[in-house]
Amino acid sequence: xxxxxxxxxxxxxxxxxxxxxxxxxxxxxxxxxxxxxxxxxxxxxxxxxxxxxxxxxxxxxxxxxxxxxxxxxxxxxxxxxxxxxxxxxxxxxxxxxxxxxxxxxxxxxxxxxxxxxxxxxxxxxxxxxxxxxxxxxxxxxxxxxxxxxxxxxxxxxxxxxxxxxxxxxxxxxxxxxxxxxxxxxxxxxxxxxxxxxxxxxxxxxxxxxxxxxxxxxxxxxxxxxxxxxxxxxxxxxxxxxxxxxxxxxxxxxxxxxxxxxxxxxxxxxxxxxxxxxxxxxxxxxxxxxxxxxxxxxxxxxxxxxxxxxxxxxxxxxxxxxxxxxxxxxxxxxxxxxxxxxxxxxxxxxxxxxxxxxxxxxxxxxxxxxxxxxxxxxxxxxxxxxxxxxxxxxxxxxxxxxxxxxxxxxxxxxxxxxxxxxxxxxxxxxxxxxxxxxxxxxxxxxxxxxxxxxxxxxxxxxxxxxxxxxxxxxxxxxxxxxxxxxxxxxxxxxxxxxxxxxxxxxxxxxxxxxxxxxxxxxxxxxxxxxxxxxxxxxxxxxxxxxxxxxxxxxxxxxxxxxxxxxxxxxxxxxxx
Amino acid sequence: xxxxxxxxxxxxxxxxxxxxxxxxxxxxxxxxxxxxxxxxxxxxxxxxxxxxxxxxxxxxxxxxxxxxxxxxxxxxxxxxxxxxxxxxxxxxxxxxxxxxxxxxxxxxxxxxxxxxxxxxxxxxxxxxxxxxxxxxxxxxxxxxxxxxxxxxxxxxxxxxxxxxxxxxxxxxxxxxxxxxxxxxxxxxxxxxxxxxxxxxxxxxxxxxxxxxxxxxxxxxxxxxxxxxxxxxxxxxxxxxxxxxxxxxxxxxxxxxxxxxxxxxxxxxxxxxxxxxxxxxxxxxxxxxxxxxxxxxxxxxxxxxxxxxxxxxxxxxxxxxxxxxxxxxxxxxxxxxxxxxxxxxxxxxxxxxxxxxxxxxxxxxxxxxxxxxxxxxxxxxxxxxxxxxxxxxxxxxxxxxxxxxxxxxxxxxxxxxxxxxxxxxxxxxxxxxxxxxxxxxxxxxxxxxxxxxxxxxxxxxxxxxxxxxxxxxxxxxxxxxxxxxxxxxxxxxxxxxxxxxxxxxxxxxxxxxxxxxxxxxxxxxxxxxxxxxxxxxxxxxxxxxxxxxxxxxxxxxxxxxxxxxxxxxxxxxxxx
Lengths: 575, 575
Known about the structure:
The structure is a homodimer.
Chain A lengths: L20 H8 L3 E5 L2 E4 L1 H20 L2 E3 L5 E3 H7 L1 H4 L5 E4 L5 E4 L4 H8 L11 E10 L14 E11 L2 H21 L6 E4 L9 E8 L5 E6 L5 E3 L19 E4 L6 H8 L7 E8 L5 E7 L6 H8 L6 E3 L22 E6 L8 E7 L2 E6 L1 H4 L5 E2 L18 E16 L1 H5 L4 E2 L5 E2 L2 E8 H12 L16 E5 L6 H16 L4 E3 L6 H11 L3 E5 L1 H5 L3 E6 L5 E5 H14 L3
Parallel strand pairs in A: 3-7, 15-17, 17-20, 25-26, 25-27
Antiparallel strand pairs in A: 1-2, 4-6, 5-6, 7-8, 8-24, 9-10, 10-21, 11-12, 11-21, 13-19, 14-15, 14-16, 18-19, 21-24, 22-23, 27-28, 28-29
Helix pairs in contact in A: 1-11, 2-6, 2-11
């Protein structure tokens, strides 16, 4: 098409609202337009790329025999009541009433809808296993939408659901989706995505992986072992052991610490390091109202996901307890000895075998030094509820080669089990005619976020650097002085017509702009082949200047050789 | 694919909830599943057909250089306030609040969103004209969803918007869309769709057409002139004149009509026909609160769309006035003579030149006969606010060859003018650098309704009879005794593999079902080519039985000739 007609103007300035590179480049390049908080329009360039990503996903889903369907975004409260999630999910589930006062939701995920759609559609065991998927709009009323397309409220998602008559069948299908996901990431240009063990969160179920693109702008923390390749989201990463720091036993001794209520203040006051101190982190569980006190060595943070999983609590059912909550706890001075609070007490693994730590004395303005839990409290159970550190031991190979990186989640897969089929009463008849609830897996990829992630991983300076598989155009022709030099115009038009006839999707920059503007815009459009036509082309015996996306060099190619040159180049690219 | 794996079971019984044939066949064939009132899931067969329809629409949009975008379904009240439609649209616009109490809507159309998306994206006149479109989910909170996919609440729509710097340019583009729409209807198998002049309703603007599929299950009434091909929706159909019925002048005379308040009762009482009577239809306009009385000859109905357009009132701003509304009107006995009500009086064209009619006497229990408006009331203005009858004169050729049919609206196009660009302050700089508001056109097709309409037009008995362009599979292989006869199975598998290798989308019925069930299901699946493999095939020297969708005959074709036979057949089909 002619660039003068392309809707979505490039912006001269870096957008001030952009917090990450993909957000900035998508706005600057005219790919997206913000409509409201966390809600965007895809302009033509954005839509072209997203359509290509969707097609790659669709192809990989079809290859593993998943059947495409389309479920609605609006669902009834009644449906979400069937799984209990209408009540258990927080305010990210958007609830409203229709004109007849019927309570409805905007779907943020489709487990209930899938099962309901399939009631009576797969009654015999012979249909199993099978999978369905759809690529559809979802709405999640995020508290803090951020970073352009990375965390939005309205988004397009591919979500697939598989159904099984045995755990082995679920495990096999899970593996197929796992491989299909890796193919998808490779084909859209980010083969470096890693799968990490993840929390099953509100979905329930027996196992889960997230696919993570490691990059600085990611919100998630990923723990990686370079020895055995163990990968896990920090939320569910464990360590096989924590080195003991304070090995020398000491006498217990109370000391005066007026107004010393934080670890920082205590370090300064005692001239000790964090690992010589113990801390108490205090929560309230909303199901019973009871207090939960976690003791942990002070160089470590409590991992609230692991803690919630230990306590079998939903996302929002555990909150930090505040000093203002009247009770008999000496906030800032809590320790394991003489603790009289009515609370569940949890000891983190980092405290095991420590012979001497400083802890609060459970008395205002006093701490104890020389605390030895085994000696002073007795036998207690130690559990792993703190965040893994790079200095910890890998839980699989027990080596000390962990590293922690930031990551963006670009997909997730879950083994759900029979939670939803049971609650919605979906069953099949087995070979004996008995009724059973099928097991389910679910598999999601956010399309817009995947697009933004590709940019996070691949963009350089102001170049989008998309791979040929998803670039909005195959070829970009940039003629200089197109509107002023007739020879240049004729040559560019000839090449444009030639390549369009060959079936390529070609963009011709027919605008009256200088070379700087044209090349800057071209970097934002990111076609894998750029052909420059200029006065020099004519002077050089009609040799066109060609630059391909995976090289910094330009080649000179005559018009006659052009089609073959492009065909050969494209064959080299595997996506 | 193997039919045993296809999700979406066919149902034995005709679905009791089906009110029209498409609704019944889509449920029976396992194409759709109802999730809530007016909300459906498309199961695999449904999704396949809809995807093909969407691709045909996409191709025709791309051919006229419309650029595809994707706008969100959730919009802010603030956006809809810019056009004033947040207040002017009724409760079919679903309004809700997000977690931060911001007022939002589910978009039922995207004029505001399109203009907002394009603010600052088309600043120079050189980009004009241009069009954008998207294929996206909409929600319209219908009071009475009905007829399966014909009138739903959540639906997928292709809506396009064009932008212009002159009326001529808008007219030209409108013509392009008009032609593209006709191509779309032809390609999906309903070339008989007609374009009719339509009301511009809440959209505003200078002209509009609806595309109508004429069929008994349609809700709209279409007026057609077989002489000049004039077509109009009843809502906006006019007549050039109405024949005078009561030509003989008579003396005016009051007569006693105790409790005779309806035309039916008056006809019986007087032994006259409807056309000898006049009636008064009484409304209240909500903008001023004032009463509106329409006088019309009693064989005709008031056309409320024409009346609202005459009064320049929105859809919901005119309501029937009830007798309970206290005023000085003698309900059931209202007429043009001695009328003392404080009301706007409107005389329908059907009263012009009538010399003697029975009307209410504006006095309880009395009517007048012999009413001659010219003689008894004086000169009044007659306007055309009644529904056209088949006995009327065509407004274009003035011949009396009108017919009225039912129709389903399968698309609409509007010339919007600058209403939305002005209200949202979208402008471009013209050649002199002056700022102007572009003119807009908008162009919509509901995808699901189009699918259902194709079925309404084409289905016969329990056969879906879809055209090859949108049938869910290219070829359906129906082997009889597949699970019991090894020769049949081998032959069917060979043919299946052969045709899949040739790139066709083939469904193989590998189920252990009898011929009756297989053929009934095949009729619902509606592949344009059906290949039957049976014991007879083997006995007949491996001649396959082939039936194509556009013929009632079957052909016997050997396996060796099969591919060529299919290729030749497909070349004959133009869609």
